[in-house]
Amino acid sequence: MPETQTALDILNPSDTFAPRHIGPSDAEIGDMLATLGYKSLDELTDATLPADIRLREPLSIGGPRGEHELLAELKGIASKNRVFRSMIGMGYYGCITPGVILRNILENPGWYTQYTPYQAEIAQGRLEALLNFQTMVSDLTGLPLASASLLDEATAAAGR
Amino acid sequence: MTMCHRIVGGDRIAYFVSNTCHPQTIRVVQTRAVPLGLSVVVGDVHATDFSDGKYFGVLVQYPTTDGAIEKYESVAQQVHGGGGLLVAATDLLALALIKPPGEWGADIAIGNSQRFGVPMGFGGPHAAFMSTREEYARQMPGRIVGVSKDAQGRMGYRLAIQTREQHIRREKATSNICTAQVLLAIMASMYAVYHGPEGIRRIAERVRAFARGLRTGLLKLGHRVGDEPVFDTLRVKPMGRSAADVIAAARAKSINLRDFGDGSLGIAVDETSDVAAACDILISFGAPDSLDFEEVANEGRAAIPSDIARTSAYLSHPVFNTHHSETEMLRYIYTLQQRDLSLATSMISLGSCTMKLNGTSEMVPVTWPEFANPHPFAPIDQARGYEIMFERLENWLAEITGFAATSLQPNAGSQGEYAGLLVIRAFHEHRGESARNVCLIPVSAHGTNAASAVMAGFRVVPVAIDANGAIDMSDLKAKATEHKKDLAAVMVTYPSTAGIFEEGVRDLCRVIHDCGGQVYMDGANMNAQVGLCRPGDIGADVCHLNLHKTFCIPHGGGGPGMGPICVAAHLAPFLPGHPVEETAEKRAIGAVSAAPYGSPAILPIPYVYIALMGGEGLRKATQVAILNANYMAKRLEGHYPLVYRGRNGRVAHEFILDCRPFEKSAGIKIDDIAKRLIDYGFHAPTMSWPVPGTLMVEPTESESMVELDRFCDAMISIREEIRAVEEGRADRADNVLKGAPHTAAVVCSNEWAHKYSREQAAFPTAWIRDHKFWPHVGRIDNVWGDRNLMCACPPMDSYQ
Ligand SMILES: Cc1ncc(COP(=O)(O)O)c(C=O)c1O
């Protein structure tokens, strides 16, 4: 760490996210740029985008944040939602998500990071689960053919 | 509605919607009807005669929005007599106890599967469902999974009758759905697997027992309650006190009831209801604190009247009757999971899909109860946290796109397109230019573009592309000028669907504006723009963002997604409204989703992503996405020709590899390469879109150089395998590509008759030994499956 780093920089969160989100390390970025014959990301950008559309100012979104402190802040925002027992109905009902489904499906990247199952041979798991969905819908509604999900009840009624 | 219209055909334009449907459903149907020139009549089904054939379809809610279980047999007879179709919006839990729509004459059933274990999430995401008679298979919107067999004759699943949709015929399209709600559908199906028919029935009966108990209690207190029979919902007219007082009293006990706005209120019981809540409700109606609900509930007990009771079995397939212990359930979930290649396995370089990291910190808040549990129509003052998040996110998205306002309502890119085009339509109408109805769309556009344009009531006029995949500016100018009087909009994707930053995009916007049109930008490729350029600055008027691409919402195997739209100031007054929660101005186009903010529970994902990255981080992510693509293109260009290049030979965030020559040189088709990649542990890039016979690769910024190199090595190795066929060193019919993918069962079998080795088949390079992904089935026969359509769980004897 160069000495020019101010004392304040050292107090910034150590768990900033961009280096986790972005796959290549700065060294790898340098190597890849060299392969292409550029010195910097900006140089590559200049070469790739038409000049007349370039955004010249930084996005006004704020600086990078640490994962831990941002989640703490968001928890504070979330807690401004007051969760009542809603017995309003209208197509939305309280329900119990079985823990085994919550943790192992909804919160499991093995289930949430795949794409639409176009490559069937490597999608047999979710295709079976979707076939179960179709069977469940077909059985309960008493109609033989069901599809593998639509966006919401109202757009389903509009007929997609 | 549109499905009925397609099936019934003819010149009928009227659709009847029962006034006992959910209000948001009525509103969304109305919004949809207008641009299609259909008319929606809302009224009392029992007081209307349908035998004259005026209506092409009728929509009823079963049970109704206020809880009545009405009988529709005679309605069905009349509707059918008149040559129309009957649609039932229904509730899966109720159907465990009452006669299913298919048994009383409904032709189509639709609804929401949310209450099968999916949190309300302030409106979504949840999976809606649709079922119908077999003869309407080809008219049914959305994807259908079907059963087929693989190359070894083993059973395997795949998406059935695909030709219906991704490859939707441009001008004919009437459904634009692409991303749907797969993850949520899977949750709901797992809920059924976990509980089985008895468990589901028990939950339904418990819900009904609470509703009946409440009904009995309310009658005893002298209030007026809707007629029997009931399932879960009661409509109550309080006596001796106002509905507002009761609602306030319940709210003081942290319970939300429905306000019908006419002095009556609604109570909907659910799986989470308990005795304490039931007591609180009755006390809010004036019952004494000492109330004994169990006694009341006991008094209210009664069997379901036989004329509405369900007698047929459901969920009898073994899959719903096996995994009821948690151990079995856990193993079932993991057994299926292991058959799928996800980002937890390797990169998924699908062009136009932006399969980037779905960061854990982004995902964590999704299941916080504060975000997961609010009801979409709960009083907005209970959703202050959501409001703060929406507002910040809307502003960030507007900043990123260079626009003035954002609507978070559309639930997918396709819905954003449709909403954005409706906004443009409303803008023209407002200016007295309602004749503008031509929508120019380049032939290279995604199928959803044209479909959305048709749904928005526009006439699609295709625009040619040039040899470099760019919009042919002279054709664009010619078409725009030709339609100067009736030009409504152009739809452009930027960077283009060919993965190129086209040079003339500003001119394009100018040409369209000069001819009185508006520019719709398809933001599917926004991952190449964020922080570097902005649709608003370029000259577009509206664009959608696929939050499930650029902004990290995971694809969930085909949904959920979100497709908010950002618009320039002149279009802001027309952004979607909502009948239940007022979300917009008077000139609003109406609702495009059931819930006012689409699928709020997944909005923490883009929120956390944007906040964590900050402006600089987002910009760098875009630059690295472009770097990664150009690096891969560079490594692969000597092996596979690049179809298109932009300025300085650069591509944007994705690029297209030409595989067409191999068909002639080696008899190798694009499918063979895609399936062979599986043997190397990779998901194929986007196949044959936007150019047939090609692969479109989008690495995203989240993949490290090591992973990019692994993928490139696999592609190069496959090129050498093709070369072996070209040079006669491998057989044209029996080679590693034609035999791909190779399952463990095939490779380990005692029989091996191929002209290549087992090792070549399964372990073509050294690193695969370290990390082998075995496909569960061999190559699936799509044609066979479509000829022998089966779209429900097959009988047990077929599992081998
Ligand atoms: C260029 C383009 N436009 C539109 C869409 C449709 O988006 P969605 O699937 O979210 O409806 C896609 C999605 O794959 C796309 O690639």
Mean pLDDT of chain B: 95
Major sheet description of chain A: none
Largest interface, counted by CB within 8 Å of the partner chain's CB? A-B, 123 and 250 residues
Strand content of chain B: 5-15%
Give helix and strand order of chain A, one letter per element, not per position. HHHHEHHHEH
**Which band does the percent of strand residues of chain A land in?**
under 5%
- Helical fraction of chain B equals 25-40%
| Ligand list | pyridoxal-5'-phosphate
Note poorly predicted spans of chain A. Answer: none
Q: Rounded to an integer, what's the Rg of chain A over CA atoms?
A: 25 Å
Instruction: Give the averaged pLDDT of chain A, no decimals.
Output: 95
For this structure, the quaternary state is heterodimer
- Determine the structural class of chain A based on helices, strands and strand pairing: mainly alpha
For the termini of chain B, the CA-CA separation is 41 Å
> How many strands in all of chain B?
22
Structural class assignment of chain B:
alpha/beta
Radius of gyration of chain B: 28 Å
**Which term fits the overall shape of chain A?**
extended
Describe the structure.
- The complex is a heterodimer of chains A (160) and B (800).
- Chain A is mainly alpha-helical.
- Chain A has helices at residues 18-21, 26-36, 41-48, 67-78, 99-106, 109-112, 124-141, 153-158; strands spanning 85-87, 145-146.
- Chain A starts with 17 loop residues before the first helix and ends with a helix.
- The mean pLDDT of chain A is 95.
- By secondary structure, chain B is of the alpha/beta class.
- Chain B is built from 23 helices and 22 strands.
- In chain B, the strands form 5 sheets. A 7-stranded mixed β-sheet of chain B has the order 13-19-18-17-16-14-15, sandwiched between helices.
- In chain B, a hairpin with a 7-residue loop joins strand 9 and strand 10 (233-237).
- In chain B, helix 11 runs parallel beside helix 17 (604-636).
- Chain B is globular, with a radius of gyration of 28 Å.
- The chains are: A mainly alpha (160), B alpha/beta (800).
- The interface between A and B is large, with 123 and 250 residues.
- Pyridoxal-5'-phosphate binds next to helix 12 of chain B.
